[in-house]
Amino acid sequence: MKSFKINLMDLIASILLVFSFFIPFLANSLKVNGEVLLMLINCYLIGYLSYLISFMETKKVLLMAIPLILFSGFLIFFMRDFKFVFEKQRLHDLLYVITNLYDVIFVVICFFVIEIVLSRIVGGKASLGFGVAALILYYVMQNSDIIPFDFYYKDLLVYFFFFVMAARIKPAVKFNNFLLFLGILFLAGEIYLYIYLNYYPGFYLSTIILTYLILKQSLDVECVNRQRYLFFAYLYPYKVIYVLLKSAINASPFVITIIGVLSTFIIGEFLYKIKVKFLDYLFIGIH
């Protein structure tokens, strides 16, 4: 029997991404706020992608964006019955596709560009300072009236912190037991506050500690394994598969999601088995 190595960082990313597809159906059963849960998952996914990118050449990061352009373009024209007419409505379609289907990877690519610019202007350490400032600003906006303005996409402040933090993590062989204990302690306290006192500060600090630990313990970062192929298959092709299934079969969103997840798993396994560079970069953005 063949065996394969499991990379915890990649496996957790794949599980969380797939789980996020089912949040609309499970949030009420779990008695949690679906938007809060999705935000916490996105924080890890953005940190995970940032950590991967930090070990890549710039050209490979650009190659990672190929499926974003390809699938977004396909979905825009699919939504308009492939009428190749460029009009103002296409911009609204593009915004819909990006914000509803490919928001995580689009945000990561944008942060990558912003971080490069900031690093060249003010230096790498200063750009991390911008990330910390963004996180503090988010907490202040969530928990006080000191700042006289608010905006809809303020979650991006937290996401930017995770991006710059993860980009500077260096792999470590030795596990930090104190940080693990601290992360679990914070998580227990935050869950207690939410369940028994109905208090949510806008973000869980334990997510930062646990994400940091998981990423830092992942040593074989540059090796593209099976779990990573599956993650990028769920990140890119799954969205197209879901839209196509929804238009082709008369079934509930839950059933379509299950079929889409299983279909994408098969595609991810197939791409991992054949490992054709052209197809990999075209459909999942990595090789």
TrEMBL record:
Transmembrane domains' residue ranges: 12-30, 36-54, 61-79, 94-114, 121-139, 151-168, 175-193, 251-272
Highest taxon of source: Bacteria
Keyword annotations of the record: Membrane, Transmembrane, Transmembrane helix
Record carries keyword Transmembrane: yes
Keyword Nucleotidyltransferase tagged: no
The protein's name in its UniProt record: Acyltransferase 3 domain-containing protein
UniProt organism field: Anaerococcus octavius
